[in-house]
């Protein structure tokens, strides 16, 4: 997980770039959506493989610090060094959002995947849009009735996925860790459009990733993950997964997502929330031979249906 939701479509002079007045979606938009659908869906598999021989928070720290520095360098090269200039308030906000999303959200997911299958993790994370609806209602906004029904469906599916024994030999502590991660991710996503952020969205994300990565490093050191850890013990498989997460998960997919926020309706972009879990479950079953039990299938289907209802309701508003 490496993106945030602003809560409204982005338009220029009354039109959305990449979308004609007849609402026809361009090939570039579909290509970017395909990247977000597949690559972000595959990051759950990448995380699961990376933590096979890497400590969870150390691996997350390496991923986000490297990706943040590279993205910052690309921003300076593409837009000029001035694009990285921020006020103290903007830097503080970007750091806070980075900690909520990447330390609280993604970092806890990495920790949980040491004991929770990647497919189940993705299904649990699919409930994030439901938490966002709850937060919006708490702050006085009024989502449509369909959104509330979607929340109830999402929570019902979440209950099925978390009931002890139903999801197979999965530690309930790991499942609860993922749920906490979804709440923190939702808080970060909800807050990102309500605090002063850097004007350049790519620069903002670079600062977020560096802050989140440093936060993960601090947690790793406090947990003592460095003790007994030897780089030579990391498998080539885990190194490959980490490189994939840096290049494809944190750079390519995020760049596609950030471009989509400026080039397509958010209601369309938000469909990644119920496509990613399907991709993750299929990859987990095919590559890691993760068992797909009927409770996981039913609970996941209910969660995805709830998210689909929320997104479709927001699209009509």
Mind summarizing the main beta sheet?
Answer: none
Class computed from helices, strands and strand pairing = mainly alpha
Distance from N terminus to C terminus (CA atoms, Å) equals: 26 Å
Indicate the radius of gyration in whole angstroms: 19 Å
Total count of strands = 0
The general outline is globular
Helix amount, in percent? Answer: over 70%
> What order do the helices and strands follow?
HHHHHHHHHHHH
Low-confidence stretches: 2-23
> What proportion strand?
under 5%
Q: DSSP helix count?
A: 12
Mean pLDDT, all residues: 82
Q: How would you summarize the topology of this molecule?
A:
Layout: H1 27-50, H2 56-79, H3 88-112, H4 118-125, H5 128-138, H6 145-162, H7 172-191, H8 201-223, H9 236-263, H10 266-269, H11 272-287, H12 294-316
Helix pairs in contact: 1-4, 1-9, 1-11, 2-3, 2-8, 2-9, 3-7, 3-8, 4-11, 5-6, 5-7, 5-12, 6-12, 11-12
Overview of this protein structure:
With 317 residues, the protein is mainly alpha-helical. The chain is 71% helix and 0% strand. It contains 12 helices and no strands. 50% of the residues are buried. Residues 2-23 have low confidence and may be disordered.
